[in-house]
Amino acid sequence: MKRTPKSARAAAMPTLPAAKCHEDALREQAWIGDAVLALYVRLKILNEDGRLDGAKASRMTSNGFLAGVGEPTAVEADIGRAYSAGGLEAAYRHIEERLMPLYAKQAGKRLRQAGGARAGFTQAR
Q1: H-assigned helices in the chain
Q2: Contact 48, 121 (CB under 8 A)
Q3: C-beta of residue 75 within 8 angstroms of C-beta of residue 55
Q4: How far is it, in rounded angstroms, from Cα 22 to Cα 74?
């Protein structure tokens, strides 16, 4: 049986383009980031509102909302990288600093438009 040199085998093996590898890594980071964001949002709603609110959770995690910060997959990937680097504390800090100011602004706008107190989180006194 004829043996192929190692370098020839490596050259013959199909390789993924660098962009494909980057895209896969981004999607994997975003998948983790999406899960961390969902946990953060659910805990925040329960702690601040004391009840389940699926509609609010959807608003806080939707691609439409995330697009206000950046490309949604990239935003979730940033959260995933923060989690990988420093755990939930780092990921939650990232969410608080990058996403929650926009959510608070949007919630305030919804309150003004609706004329009620059902759209967002209560403001600190």
Answers
A1: 6-12, 18-49, 54-61, 63-66, 72-98, 100-114
A2: yes
A3: no
A4: 12
HSE at residue 87, side-chain half, CA atoms within 13 A, is 1
Cβ atoms of 42 and 57 within 8 Å: the answer is: yes
Q: What is the DSSP string of 102-125?
A: HHHHHHHHHHHHHTSS-SSPPPP-
Which pair of structure tokens corresponds to residue 24? Answer: 């896969």
DSSP annotation of 5 reads P
The answer to whether residue 9 scores a pLDDT higher than 50 is no
Rounded to whole angstroms, the Cα distance separating 35 from 50 reads: 21
How many Å apart are CA 93 and CA 88, to the nearest integer?
8
Q: What does the pLDDT look like over 46-86, one tens digit per residue?
A: 999 999 999 999 999 999 999 999 999 999 999 999 999 99
- Angle between helices 18-49 and 54-61 in degrees, nearest 10: 150
pLDDT of amino acid 88 = 98
